[in-house]
Amino acid sequence: MSILLAVDIGGTKTLFQLSDSQDQVIVEQRFVSQDFASFEWVLTTFLNQDNVQGYTIDSACFAVAGPVSGRDATVTNLPWQFNADTLAAQFNIKQITLCNDFAAVAYGIAALTDDDVISLQTGDIDDCAPRAVIGAGTGLGQAVLIPTQNDWQVFATEGGHTDFAPTDDQQIALLQHLMTQYEQVSYERLVSGVGLVDIYEFLAMDSQYSDSDLVRLAMDKGDPAAVISHFALTKEDTLAQAAMNLFIKIYGAQAGNLALTVLPKAGLYIAGSIAVKNQDLFRQGPFMSAFLAKGKMASLMKTIPVKLILQENIGLMGARLLAGKIGE
User: Fold this and answer.
1) With contact defined as beta carbons under 8 Å apart, do 23 and 284 qualify?
2) What burial class does residue 7 get, using C-beta atoms within 10 Å of its C-beta: 0-12 exposed, 13-18 middle, 19+ buried?
């Protein structure tokens, strides 16, 4: 029986799952990525635990939030770089494969149950057409799936780094504001944790919103993006609500851009904890309105099936599937 290691490596958290080839989970653990200077360090910490040390790992998949080139990977929002062959030799792992984290999310779609997904738009489903997946977190991930005879071929992208295109006067002003701070204003610059904070700070300069001392104090003590999201979700602060609404409007517009580019008639999937925690804004709020607002293509956009993934560990699930495939 083979022992498999799946790791989902992100700028905020790194998730580990040790399992066997019979789908039995041995250990599952989460680490705060920024607590470690390198991936080697966090991997060492996991493998040196008493409940892990007794296992020899036959195959592993490391899903990386950043570009993967052959056997090399770089984490976009952390100073982590590594090579699969070096790690295999250093940690006595028989086989290692690397993939982009959203490629892992895309593979993980195959492991979802009906309870793991809700429909935002039924559309006209065509299972012979492509799928696409997009998700905001520390960054903005995107991937494309093309149907093959018996499976799906996954292509990772860095589409989240495409240039932000404002759609109204407020967003034009937002772009102009951010251009004074950043060399490039991409969709990821806005549709991410740090992006939500930038949007909040931009709106705080508008006299129609009151800047709450309570929110500021909470932001100083904790994760600012999580604080803004909390106050928006509980409707305790109008500025936080406005920031979240604008954030999700821009998110919907970029999801629509991806849909126009790929025409994923087999489904456009929305992943990530932000979507899970703010389902109402995705079901009936600004997300779908912005998704559909494509001028001459608005009627086409209504034919795209749009689904929201409730399973937050889908990237880890996809990495586990890939680890199993290379172990066969």
Assistant:
1) no
2) buried
195: amino acid identity, one letter: G
Q: What is the pLDDT of residues 211-240, one digit of tens each?
A: 899 999 999 999 999 999 999 999 999 999
Strand order, beta sheet including 81-83: 68-69, 72-74, 81-83
Q: How far apart are CA 267 and CA 119, in angstroms?
A: 10
Same domain, 215 and 239: yes
Q: Which residues of the chain have pLDDT under 50?
A: none
CA distances from 227 to 103, 120, 224, 277, 313 (A): 29, 26, 5, 13, 22
Which helix H or strand E contains 117, and what residues bound it? Answer: strand 117-121
Q: What is the pLDDT of residue 328?
A: 58
Reported pTM: 0.90
Sorted by sequence, the CB contacts under 8 Å of residue 300 that are 6+ apart come out as 260, 294
**Residue 168 belongs to domain with CATH number:** 3.40.367.20
Number of H helices, E strands in the chain: 15, 14
Q: Quick one: DSSP state of residue 200?
A: H
Establish how many alpha carbons lie within 13 A of residue 245's alpha carbon, considering only the half-sphere containing its beta carbon: 13
Q: State the sign of the Cα–Cα–Cα–Cα dihedral 19, 23, 25, 30.
A: positive
- Cβ atoms within 10 Å of 12's Cβ, excluding its own: 18
**For residue 103, how many other CB atoms are within 10 A of its CB?**
26
- Report yes or no: 26 and 55 within 8 Å, Cβ to Cβ: yes
Residues 138 and 32 in one domain: no
How many domains, the chain? 2
Domain that holds residue 68: 3-106+314-326
Residues 100, 216, single domain; the answer is no
Do 140 and 275 lie in one domain? The reply is yes
The CATH number covering residue 29 comes to 3.30.420.40
